[in-house]
Amino acid sequence: xxxxxxxxxxxxxxxxxxxxxxxxxxxxxxxxxxxxxxxxxxxxxxxxxxxxxxxxxxxxxxxxxxxxx
Amino acid sequence: xxxxxxxxxxxxxxxxxxxxxxxxxxxxxxxxxxxxxxxxxxxxxxxxxxxxxxxxxxxxxxxxxxxxxxxxxxxxxxxxxxxxxxxxxxxxxxxxxxxxxxxxxxxxxxxxxxxxxxxxxxxxxxxxxxxxxxxxxxxxxxxxxxxxxxxxxxxxxxxxxxxxxxxxxxxxxxxxxxxxxxxxxxxxxxxxxxxxxxxxxxxxxxx
Lengths: 69, 207
Known about the structure:
The complex is a heterodimer.
Chain A: H1 2-15, H2 18-29, H3 45-61
Helix pairs in contact in A: 1-3, 2-3
Chain B: E1 2-9, E2 24-28, E3 31-36, H1 44-60, E4 63-66, E5 72-73, H2 76-85, H3 87-97, E6 100-109, H4 120-133, H5 138-144, E7 148-155, E8 161-170, H6 174-183, E9 189-197
Antiparallel strand pairs in B: 1-3, 1-4, 1-5, 2-3, 6-8, 6-9, 7-8
């Protein structure tokens, strides 16, 4: 059961465009949470947490207008 | 098991949930929990559907605190007792977001160098203070001061992404907000903007 959920999470994050990344960040990282019972039960979410900020960076690098680093 | 979409005031009575179900409202002393089917398994479509549902509720409600994807309670009793435990906090948050919506800024750039002659401890604290306050955004804050009702800053540790900044603005002000962002030059950082969103970042964490 763990494996498919992990696979699903990887699929979501790998295929996400910038607008889906924004949705994921708001929907999974923010908002009212109830006591403990909530997100912990959704397998694969931890993996998304770990990679989300890095992906938000990566998505930005794809934008045409950028200043030198 | 019931799923939670939002805590609201003046929530729409006829809204549809993420899977087309009719939502129902569990009310307790002015707090309305907008509920529906239990959360579905994680998928990109499920995340999009949750976001769209919260957005519909937020647009129709007087005030709306979005619930995180996956939020659920065993039954209505469990839900109302969770609400009761945080009644004051939720009430304050609802008052803050009433009639408002959120804009999200991603702030890109390199962390500012602290070139003080002070010792490493002082430099470390100064760097932390700066990254929390993001003085690089002050020109933007001044230009936006008539629009911003509240601000939350979240620091990041990833190279290139300094912080995410969340602004609460009056509903309908997002176009004006974007125009200010587009016309205000910033030194050393660059921002990308998204929104308007329901007030995701202004909901208290109850866990």
